[in-house]
């Protein structure tokens, strides 16, 4: 459905330096799927999205939508955004304040290539508004809608012209937490029901995990990893991905031996750890092992298999649905997430059990700060 | 249900049109604006290096004009006076105009709905009349204010002396304050109140909000206002001539004026003086473009939660209402009444019972029966509305290019469109006259030449008004239209123009008023049949028919007042509505 | 296509425009003088054939012949030819209201439509010179101030007329070169506010103004350099300069822009005593009942306004006819509307006044000198 090949976007900034906004972006989105570009701000995800929309002219590369060439630096093709037949929801919603709800939604039909009768337009607008549950608000001033309603209006406006592709630029970032969660489900349902191919841009990893069929994690203008939410979460290919998606513990180590079937043994500050490794590292090379907090099992009894470490509970944070523990293992601090029923007080000596399959050894060139075990930011 | 029609038969891409409409419009606009801007510029620079031309002596190349203009120690004094005058005027009118605009747009001050139309009355009054009205109000000899206070306190003390630098700044500042008012109104009107509200929630006082948030966001408009008011007051003529001269305060424009009016007319010398103005303006425009290229920083009209709404001042609103009333009485009503009073007299005299007995409407019927009066009115109406509309549309495209695109050299475009602001009107008139005499396309001697002159002369103002509004529009509002399938033309017409309504309308009103008043180039360019109203004003003034001029002024004010209110009502229907 | 369009920078567009303009300018300059002669010769031949067929003995139809013709049938032939032309274009700086009345008289007498273009005298000059430089001659006759007419004469844009009515005029009205002729006078008189100053306090000599009781009371129009020169010449250059220096030193002179404003300000009491107002304006206000009176410290200085015929008129006969009209029939009417005509035949209230004329030629020649002196003494520029 959507094909992006070797897309580059560079431009000079005010100081005359070249900003490499997008570097060698290649991706493919199958029909009817929701594809997410995830990354911190400035990672190039919005630039890529805007290039697909036609709002930015890439430096080089090729973009095809539904088999039609939208942009190609080689063939010197650039289709204007208004001729691409792509719907887009903007981060600021971009609701036109001088029009009411109906007029906002009808606009794409009035200005589009196809000439529609007044009646057809009205029908389509009402249907679109119904889809986003804005029935009955047609004549409301757009500026008098609540945040969530504006967001839905923006969605209705993008959908009303029945585009082949829907682009969503951080559509939920302006909503409050509760509404954001609800809209997340609605979006997912809508997308699935309509079967519309969608590209979703966000910096919120939980949103990405919840909505997507596929995720591209981006950083510094490049795609770092593409995969299903599960793959991305469970088998991060790099320290950046592991860190960015969810929270994790990084434990530095040196490879002792390769034990086959994708596993290695590494010597770390919390002892010898057996970990999964996608590549086969040479013994003696440095690795960082990522262990997610929920994959550290804390108990009084020593686990019988898997990796085991001995530690002491340093701090204990009750969070309702779960309890976060800071564990002191030797000189290192590890974070573990446990069920609230576990009522060990701080200071208790415990055992930490870690399934080797859930311990991911990463050979990251860009090493994390040495010495300390990094506990990444908690999920917000 | 929707799903069934979801993927209809996809249309193949139509062949590209030969000329893209967008680039066609942009190209034409750039061409027109550059043409209008460069013609007088080239003329001015060429003249500034030439000796005066007579029948017996051809013009020669010389750098002497610059030597003469800038080695005369007197020039320094003129510059100094002009600078103080312009700085004072722009500061005063900016403070006044901004305060009024803020009260009018951002607060719940009572009576404010009346205010917009009333506040621009000082701008409507022809500046000669406005100045003379203030002579009658605040001159040490006969000023009503002085006489009244002297009688009240039984002293000879002179309370106000209009013949001073302060007096000049006061009169000019008041006269220009509507210009700042209009600009700042436009800026405030498209400002998202949530930006202010969030400051209020952070515990900021109203004073803090105003200075830390509102004014910071309105910075581009403030800068634009300072720029045009500074340049305008440097090149203004009436106030320095009528108020400065008796006090011995000479300004820069008198040097330009003296150079032009002699024989043979020394336009070259005038031009070399004007080059300084050119440089000042260029620097100003350069800094302004720095501001506009910082782009979205000032786009306060985003597509989210944007709700124009006023701030509740609480009991302070009685204070602001008081300021309104004082402003009205002092600046609008009293000068207006002075005009009305003198329009009913045979010659001006201090109001008294005896003078009251002689009032009559003779002056009004005189003006209405004045030769070519009706034709002048219809010509002026046609020209002012035509040029205001054209200018606002042209400069809307120009400022779109300057603010919204990354085309190289767009700063130059901004500058070229801004430069006519500094050409002395008469130099502009002569340059246009020469061009269309040499390049005879049938424009000379018709209304069209006046139209071209007005376009050139007032394009810079239209541009500043439009730019201020354009900068406030978040780019996503426009991009979402493109994504909806709208062409550039449609987006411009249906999204951008309505969103920049407040600046567009303010600029339109401003250009209408100033082009009705325009004299210095009109007087050279009009011909029998294409008389305009400003010629009649000048004529009455020249002949000393001061009371008849007042009658014309009163009618003028009433007519424009109605026009402005009408425009307000008309544009209420389009653009962003207030709640 | 689109790609290139986007890359087209503003700068390159500007270059194109500048180039275009310089070509235009070059073309314009090349054809500067030439169209002038062709335009006039075109008119000549046309009227020649039309007239030659009608009347037997040759009455000239070209402007050069017309202005020189002195035959007895001059008047009738002129009217006949002018009626054929039917129109007249007049550039003037006389108040439109007054000029409309004068023109109406002319139209009434000869049935020739007068098109009036009115502006300030310096604009009249500017417009005619600029038009002429481009080879355009839209004016047939010009009526304006002496110095501007003198300048037009020097620009070789006026032609002398041998009119039989010239002998009716006072000798000062006739210029030695004949390029233009004075038709009316603006006499600089002194005016005072009668509620601020008493008649018996008013000085009758220039020296009388040096009395310190006039401190701060005296004003002058800001550009009356010709009057200033006239007074100084009258008093003798050294004496005159000293007088003005003394006047500024003892009593000061305040400057006001515009004669009519100055007169109005006298009427309103703002200016108690004005040195230079025009007699007719002061008279008008006085008649309206304003507390103002005027008189003249003799000899009074007068500035001539006159009329001149264009070198290349489109309507030559009408132009000459109008010139005749202005120095003949219109003179009495000018007196009626408060002007001071130059005809000996017309009686004026100012006939017995001792008047000195400002010589327009001298003013043009010596302008820089007098302006410098004016600025130094009156405007007190250092």
From TrEMBL, chain A:
Record's signal peptide: none
Matching Pfam families: ABC_tran, TOBE_2
GO cellular component terms, semicolon-separated: ATP-binding cassette (ABC) transporter complex, substrate-binding subunit-containing
SUPFAM superfamilies, per database record: MOP-like, P-loop containing nucleoside triphosphate hydrolases
Record's keyword terms, sorted: ATP-binding, Cell membrane, Membrane, Nucleotide-binding, Translocase, Transport
UniProt superkingdom: Bacteria
Cited PROSITE patterns: ABC_TRANSPORTER_1, ABC_TRANSPORTER_2
InterPro entries given in the database record: AAA+_ATPase, ABC_transporter-like_ATP-bd, ABC_transporter-like_CS, ABC_transpr_MalK/UgpC-like, Mo/tungstate-bd_C_term_dom, NA-bd_OB-fold, P-loop_NTPase, Transp-assoc_OB_typ2
Residue intervals of the ABC transporter domain: 2-245
Gene Ontology molecular functions: ABC-type transporter activity; ATP binding; ATP hydrolysis activity
PANTHER family: MALTODEXTRIN IMPORT ATP-BINDING PROTEIN MSMX (PTHR43875), TREHALOSE IMPORT ATP-BINDING PROTEIN SUGC (PTHR43875:SF15)
Protein name: Iron ABC transporter ATP-binding protein
Organism encoding this protein: Paenibacillus abyssi
Automatic annotation (TrEMBL), chain B:
Membrane-topology annotation of the record: Multi-pass membrane protein
GO CC annotations, alphabetized: plasma membrane
This protein's UniProt keywords: Cell inner membrane, Cell membrane, Membrane, Transmembrane, Transmembrane helix, Transport
Gene3D superfamilies: MetI-like
GO biological process, one term: transmembrane transport
Localization (cell): Cell inner membrane; Cell membrane
Family annotation (InterPro entries): MetI-like, MetI-like_sf
Domain (ABC transmembrane type-1): residue spans on this chain: 79-288, 377-567
Family assignment from sequence similarity: Belongs to the binding-protein-dependent transport system permease family.
The protein, known as: Iron dicitrate ABC transporter permease
Organism name: Paenibacillus abyssi
Automatic annotation (TrEMBL), chain C:
Residues in the signal sequence: 1-25
One family name in Pfam for this protein: SBP_bac_8
Keyword field: Signal
Polar residues compositional bias, start-end: 35-50
Annotated segments matching region Disordered: 33-57
Record carries keyword Signal: yes
PANTHER family (alphabetical): ABC TRANSPORTER SUBSTRATE-BINDING PROTEIN, THIAMINE-BINDING PERIPLASMIC PROTEIN-RELATED
Name under which the protein is recorded: ABC transporter substrate-binding protein
Lineage, highest ranks first: Bacteria, Bacillati, Bacillota, Bacilli, Bacillales
